[in-house]
Design a protein that fits this description.
about 475 residues; alpha/beta; 5-stranded parallel sheet; globular
């Protein structure tokens, strides 16, 4: 990983919203109203006289699950970095969340465990927002759609319109007023368009149909099975010993097929508890099986699931991680970008999705504020975004690829083997060495680029901790 990539990533991490943003567009359109789309709309509100979010789901309901986000009933982690970035664009949203029953969990109420060991405290005041995804999305949406130049069109984006090598509008279909369930079709004229249609985005298909390059799609097998349930929480937040728990298990640990377990003290005086298994392991598909699995895990999971069930088990399966390489495409229309899961959707266990979406918003703000030629393809935006995607992909896909290769007995190049050995040492050292724990957390929380883990000082500390553990 180059020094320039590390420097660029960290400049994006520290970027503030612009104070005097130039108005560049009459109308900007965002296709998709999830977290990535909402944050893109917030950025565009500084640069457009009107921003229209085209979203097929009814997003007027408060803090409810919706069809377009099938994973929203699972545990979601807003990493400390993601919370910080969303707070920059929407100041006060964390306090609004707390007013609605969510909590900020500092280091004294966080637990990260690996098998029987607890990760060493890193001495940094990282704050996790303990909240359910539907409520967080509601808070972000309410803030963004309250802006005077942002509106929502309830419709399904069905294609693009072009002129002069640039996108000039979005084709859409919405609920019609005629008989037989007919759908009204139309075109929304737009000077700039953002694809935030998520993992199932059709943008690449449209581009291919319309004579442009289709970004290369990279897939990595990562078959994960989630089961999540909600339970009444008797203790109030101040009384809790821990409020956010993440427990990871190696294949050798007798966890009954559970690879990751998590518990979060969320709004409504509830515990949101998740069990995750890889491959054929699908733990906890009924409430009785869920509680039985939790009883065999560290005591906090048994305690969290002992209350009254407030929402039964909901399962979710994801077969693979995906990323689309827009930066490689040589022929794309101008005035078009893509953000969020439409570009890269990771193994959700790493918790990078919402934080990545927030950093994509910073990429968009940087691009629009750079004076780039908007009548050319947004190559510079995609290069900025690639640095962010590469960093997140290195963490999640790197871990998944190592697990798959180990399971399949795949031989890898020596350079890859050495990198994985170094990462294994860093993870092990993070359990006992606060400095290594700090470096590891900074990368896991997307505050620092993964390349910073290969600092000679960190590698030396990791190697020494590993040797010390082996000698005991």
């Amino acid at each position: 990983m180059s020094e320039s990539a590390v420097a660029l990533f960290e400049s994006l991490v520290g970027a503030e919203p612009p104070h005097d943003a130039p108005v560049l567009f009459d109308t900007a359109c965002v296709m998709g109203g999830s977290i990535a789309g909402l944050l893109a709309a917030r950025v565009l509100s500084d640069h457009a006289r009107e921003v229209v979010i085209v979203e097929p789901d009814d997003i007027s309901a408060q803090a409810h699950s919706r069809p377009g986000v099938p994973q929203d009933q699972q545990v979601h982690t807003l990493l400390p970095a993601g919370r910080r970035w969303i707070e920059r664009w929407l100041p006060g949203v964390s306090q609004e969340a707390r007013d609605r029953g969510a909590s900020l969990a500092g280091p004294d109420k966080q637990f990260v465990g690996y098998d029987d060991a607890r990760q060493a405290p890193d001495g940094v005041d990282h704050q996790f927002l303990a909240i359910g995804r539907p409520l967080l999305e509601t808070l972000v949406r309410d803030r963004v759609t309250a802006l005077p130049n942002v509106s929502v069109l309830r419709a399904q984006a069905t294609g693009l319109r072009y002129g002069g090598g640039a996108v000039t509008g979005v084709r859409f279909a919405g609920a019609g007023t005629g008989g037989q369930g007919e759908r009204a079709e139309g075109v929304l004229a737009a000077d700039f368009v953002v694809d935030a249609m998520g993992r199932s985005s059709r943008l690449s298909h449209w581009l291919g149909q319309d004579g442009y390059d289709q970004p290369r799609l990279e897939r990595l097998e990562a078959p994960v099975n989630y089961a999540t349930a909600l339970f009444e929480r008797r203790a109030k937040f101040p009384e809790l010993e821990v409020a956010t728990v993440l427990q990871l298990f190696t294949p050798q640990y007798p966890s009954g097929g559970v690879s990751v377990a998590a518990a979060t003290a969320v709004e409504g005086q509830q515990w949101l508890v998740m069990l995750m298994g890889y491959g054929d392991n699908r733990p906890g598909r009924t409430i009785d099986a869920f509680r039985a699995h939790c009883a065999a895990l560290p005591p906090v999971f048994n305690d969290a699931t002992s209350g009254v069930v407030t929402r039964d088990v909901v399962t979710y399966h994801q077969a693979e991680s995906r990323r689309r390489h827009f930066a490689e495409a040589e022929r794309l229309p101008a005035r078009l970008v893509s953000v969020g899961d439409a570009v890269a959707s990771f193994n959700p266990v790493y918790g990078q999705g919402m934080s990545s979406a927030a950093l994509h918003a910073s990429c968009l703000a940087s691009y629009l504020g750079s004076g780039a030629d908007l009548d050319e393809a947004a190559t510079e935006f995609f290069r900025l975004q690639q640095v962010v995607v590469d960093a997140a992909w290195a963490v999640s896909a790197g871990g998944d690829a190592a697990r798959l290769d180990a399971e399949n007995g795949t031989e890898v190049p020596e350079e890859v083997r050495q990198q994985r050995l170094a990462m294994a040492q860093i993870v092990g050292a993070a359990l006992v060495d606060p400095e290594v724990s700090k470096a590891f957390n900074n990368v896991s929380y997307m505050l620092r680029h993964p390349g910073t883990l290969f600092d000679p000082v960190i590698l030396a500390k990791a190697a020494a901790a590993t040797e010390g553990a082996a000698a005991q």
